Amino acid sequence: MWEPSKCKDNPPQSNPPRARAILRVTHMTDIRQPRRSLWLVAQDFIQLLASLFGRSEEIAARHTLERKDWRLMCQWLRAGEALMRLLLMIEAAALPKPNTRPPRKRARRVRVRVRVKRVMEFQAEEPEAWRVSFRVLVCASARLARRTRKRRASPDPWGAARFKSAWPLAERTEALLRVFNDPLPCAQRLARRLYAAPHRARVLRVAPDLPPLVGAVAFGTVRDAAEQTRRVFDG
């Protein structure tokens, strides 16, 4: 739901719940405003996601989920992430073209890195302090595809477990909310990568079971807009 801005005619209101993604009407420097109708699709989906599964801190507080609930939430998160990637590509195409050069092929260097294990502690009730990231592009390398097929073919005791950790899903939910609230850094990063390598715009490939979760018509509107902007990176 679109929230009215604070002005003289509207008395101050209490802060909304953190999980509610709000677009500010008067903040015209926000890159989302010219395409507000498209971003409202993402806002409605994030609010629906929170109403179905809870906020990110509430998901983390559950610690574990039953496998069926875990799979169901994964499907909803994939739909939201696919929608967000399309919106980010639309915003990336609207940004000025960065000064980038096509990547050059370099000889691979074998580096031996010594990793020091560190204990990372996060509090479920403090999602703002979590260290999360949003993958703006889906890697479609052949090596990753072979690794995925091999993992699916091999028996996985954890995959057959009745309970699964809720933390990864809580982190993905938090990352999705952060990107919605501040999409500019991700859009800038995506623009640099797509102008340097336009073939990476494979984010348009969406599994057929995901659009109905967002809404077939709404998702189709965003996808059509992203298709039109895809040619920008080829020019």
Based on the model shown, name its key terms.
single chain; 235 residues; mainly alpha; two-stranded antiparallel ribbon; 8 helices; 47% helix; globular; disordered N terminus
SSE layout and pairing:
Elements: H1 36-53, H2 56-61, E1 64-66, H3 67-94, H4 142-153, E2 163-165, H5 167-181, H6 184-196, H7 211-214, H8 216-230
Antiparallel strand pairs: 1-2
Helix pairs in contact: 1-3, 3-5, 3-6, 3-8
Characterise this structure.
- This protein is mainly alpha-helical.
- It has one domain.
- Helices cover 47% and strands 3% of the residues.
- The chain has a two-stranded antiparallel ribbon.
- α1 packs antiparallel against α3, α3 packs parallel to α5 and α3 packs across α6.
- The two termini are 37 Å apart.
- 24% of the residues are buried.
- The N terminus is likely disordered.
The helix-and-strand class reads mainly alpha
Percent of residues in helical segments? 40-55%
H/E element sequence: HHEHHEHHHH
- Give the end-to-end Cα distance, rounded to a whole number of Å: 37 Å
| Order of neighbouring strands in the sheet with most strands | 1-2
Which stretches are low in confidence, meaning pLDDT under 50 for 5 or more residues running? 1-17, 24-28
Instruction: Report mean pLDDT, rounded to a whole number.
Output: 77
Radius of gyration: 20 Å
Compute the number of structural domains.
1
3D shape: globular
Q: What is the number of strand segments? A: 2
Count of helical regions = 8
Report the β-strand fraction as a percent range: under 5%
User: What composes the largest sheet?
Assistant: 2 strands, antiparallel
